[in-house]
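User: I'm curious whether this sequence folds into something compact or stays loose and floppy. Could you predict its structure so I can see for myself?
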Amino acid sequence: MTTTTTVTAALSTELIRLLGPDRVLTDPVDLDLYRYDASMETGRPDLVAIPATTAELAAIVNAVLRHGVPYVVRGAGTGYSGGALAVRGGVTILTRDLNAILELNVAERWVRCQPGVVLADLQRHVAAAGLRYLPDPSSYRVCTIGGNIAENAGGPHALGFGPTSNFVISVDVLLPDGSTATFSESDPYDGGLDLRALLVGGEGTIGVITAAILRLVPEPESQRVVMATFADQDDAVRMVERVVGDGLTPTALDMLTGAYLPGAAAGDDPSVLFIDVEGRDEEVAAQTSAMVAMAASLGGTAKSLRVDTFLEERATLVRDKVRRMISASGLPRYYLFDCVAPRGRLRDLMTVLREAADRYRLPLLNTFHAGDGNVHPAPFYDPADPGHQDRLRGFLAHVLARCAELGGAVSGEHGVGLEKRDLMELFHDPGELAAMGAVKRLFDPEGLCNPGKILPSVLPSPRPATHSASRALDVDLANGVVTVSTGVTFDEVTAALDGSAFELAYEPWGGPADEEVLAAVDAGRPGRREPYRIRARDLIVSATLAGAGGAVRTFGGICAKDVSGYELRKLVFGGRGRLGRLVSARLRLSARPVARHAVVVDCDSVDEALALAGRLHRTTLPFAYLMVTGSTGRLAVEVGLEAFGGRLDRAATELAAIARGGAPPVEAGTFDRMLPGGPWAHRDDLVARHAGGQSFRSIPALGATWVNARGPVPPGTTASWSGRLAEAVSAAW
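Assistant: Here's the prediction. I'll summarize afterward.
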């Protein structure tokens, strides 16, 4: 794509004066190095600026804003969609030297860092404290946290734990008007909207992340990988369907297909599943045993491996597959992109990929996160062939168009960027795209912050649509979702799922047992399993809102793994009608535990309760929930354990010992304050509420308190941006 030179001599001089000549690149050879990322797209900047401090970063942004010059923030340049390319010239800002790990809180399990921190460095840093940061894209050795947040990066373990958005507690952001803000996951509890969700996956188009607080989890007690091999690719897909459909809970379920060469007879290259299972010893033993037996029943062979052994075997397997493909096809390179199919249409997508390989004469391997339908086709090509880019682009467009017909998503982790922006209309209706455009214009009215990404070159005109007022409850086990409309209660959802291997893992606070599901979502009621299982807002796959005139807009689709554009669907959690009336939502289902154990421990004071909660939190017990509750004359710690294989006897014994005053085999501590940037004065707040005789439920690890079932505290510091956003999105109807 042609770029336009926009950097003036005055701006260049100002930046050199600010940063020094060594940190401002203008030589054409230097600039060409930043023309590319890992995609086929290009975009050459006119100048590259390299700040060493957050203050310098802010000064650069303010300078380019004064001069009316577009700017793009770039990390390691490992993106697959052209998201960090200067498609309109201007200034590229490198974050490589903003690479400090600012604070690690082992007790509360979070880390605060700058955007230039390399993911592998962060993982090593927290691993020394026995903790993990779970998002694990394949570029982890070089990619940076800022890029991961911008793209909402996933990786194999997104199946079990979710993508980056599930682990971002808060972000400090430099907005396109030059102001700064902190957006936190707790904002909906404080009367705001979850603006953090727009920054995560926003591809750097509505602000520059200067720091982030990230959630950590403890190392598991046990971890194994089942490697299952199948001569027939379809048998491997059947095993994927069985694993998920039977309610097993792998934390990763990846697949590497056999080679497909158009026009050639089927070879003997097998398809292989890599299934990661982790948790307590009993869970892992039960699940891996079931998976090995399942593979045999479907005509495959399987073995359970230690992680280090698996990594060695997988590296050898992938290397040999690629070498055989190059030898058989004579084509030395492959191109990688991603798309998502609904889990129930995975076999159909495999057929689509083979058809596309035939049509464009491209030998094909597929590597993908099969458990959530996120496919990474890898067509092989010869870069010396002058028509290779046209064929690759044709292949991509064909596969994505068919994926849209299957009800899929344009991206599960690579993002939209330049590569897929003009295909967004296939996946999102004009009304949703109009709402995304409203978000972009609100935060970036001048269009200077990473322009030309995510949204189509020309936005289509919204089409009128209305919503049926009929009451509906639809369970779709094949795709692992349930759709509820106005009036449907949690009790009804529970009854509809009775006898299945799934449940809706959302038990909200502050409402009656027969509360309507949409009412709890709209009010932003936290679920009692947060944050140990999953946050309620991360269960929202799509949401339908009705405007004042009766027109409706749907945000999201049917795929749980979907990073195509701004995550508008998450704004409805705690939306309280500000974006429109919530009339329908599609929520992700979770596997049903095979064993549960609950305990209530009475305490004499808030300090005693928080100390006990702190000791428990620092163990590796399999929590479903852990909360402090208060009511007239009673203060208690409520604990729920659950297992997805094996029994809970040993965990229950450990819990009982700690509840009686025994210390866990880790450093003890208390929840004496809220996570940084949050609105809750946690310990003092609970003391005051208990002394005043108020009923409350509090999740110390989440930093959220719900009082008397009446709702959250008054709006906080994000109310201004939340109100403006609600107005902008509503006006896009």
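Summary: The first strand starts at residue 24 and ends at 25. Confidence is low (pLDDT under 50) at residues 665-681, 708-717.
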